[in-house]
Structures are given as structure tokens and as C-alpha cells.
Amino acid sequence: MSGKEGNVAKHGRHDRLLKEHVHDPYMTRSKPTDPTVCSECGVVFSEGRWQWLSAIPESPQHELCPACQRIRDKVPAGILSLSGAFFQQHRDEIMRLVDNKVEEQKAQHPMKRLMAVEDQGENVVITFTDVHLPRGVGEAIERAYDGELDIHYTEEAGIVRVYWQR
After folding, report:
1. Contact 149, 164 (CB under 8 A)
2. In angstroms, what CA-CA distances link 1 with 14, 91, 131?
3. How far apart are CA 74 and CA 43, in angstroms?
4. Can you give the residue ranges of every domain in the chain?
5. At the top level of its lineage, which domain of life is listed (predicted)?
6. Is the Cβ–Cβ distance between 70 and 115 less than 8 Å?
7. Which residues, at least 6 apart from 14, have a Cβ–Cβ distance to it below 8 Å?
8. 134-155 per-position pLDDT tens digit
9. Strand order in 78-83's β-sheet?
10. Distances from the Cα of 97 to the Cαs of 102, 121, 139, in angstroms?
């Protein structure tokens, strides 16, 4: 025996005190004052989260929300690349699916937004403010049209790259 006797579960584990390292530089260390309104898009920080409200609370603070900061700085959290002959033939239809999926997510989660759509001739590159949105959009395209979906997450950079082709 090691000389230490007793139930480990009773005393707990010390390694549980370690905090997870957050890779997102746009995630604030502390919550904004409640209420806070984004000076760019009008989203409101209220009741502990950013949300779309029909009426702005009285005497709010004003600051840029994390999504607008990313858009201003042109620093995406996710990238979706769409390519292939099938994509070229059905580009408008697929891009409508992208827009619908983004609007659906943005309505529920204001920090999940499309930043830019870059037409590169044979393919389209779409940037997002959130790491989960490109994957969700890519999976929706794959469900609707099959094709090949490839997802890469770079932990050091805190960015997800999603590739779909058909």
C-alpha cells in the first residue's frame, strides 16, 4: 500500500480543479452588465445570455457583441468550403439551404452568424462566427444532397474547417 488509505471518491480528485483552456479569444472572461445592447446589431445581453428581444430594456450598457467583434476583425471561428460539379449545377439551391440553416440558427442563437460568402469560381468559401455552425450547415447539405463531408478542427487556432464536395 502507498500509506494513504481511504476512499478516493470520498475525498475527491484534485485534478478536477483544473480549468478547461478556452481557445476562443472572443469569449469574454466575464459576463457583460445586464442589460447590454450590441451597438452594431442590437442583440441584447439579458438574463445571462445574448438574445434577440422585441423591446430594448431601459438604461442599457452598449458594447459590441462577440459575433460583431469577429465580423469587424474578420476572424472567423469556422469555414465551410463547397465545391464540385454537382455544386456548380445546383449552386443557387444549395446556397438557399445554407441561408435557411443560418437564419434558423441565428434566430435561436444570436452569436451564430454567417460572416461572408466568397465566390472563388469553382468553389464557394463561407465564414462563420461560431465553430458549430459550419458543421451543422455542412451536415444539412450532406443529408440533402449526399456528397463528401470532411471536418477538421484545429485546437490551437480554435477554428473548424468543413469541406463539402460533390
Report:
1. yes
2. 20, 67, 47
3. 19
4. 17-71, 72-165
5. Bacteria
6. yes
7. none
8. 999 999 999 999 999 999 998 7
9. 114-119, 123-128, 78-83, 159-165, 148-154
10. 9, 20, 11
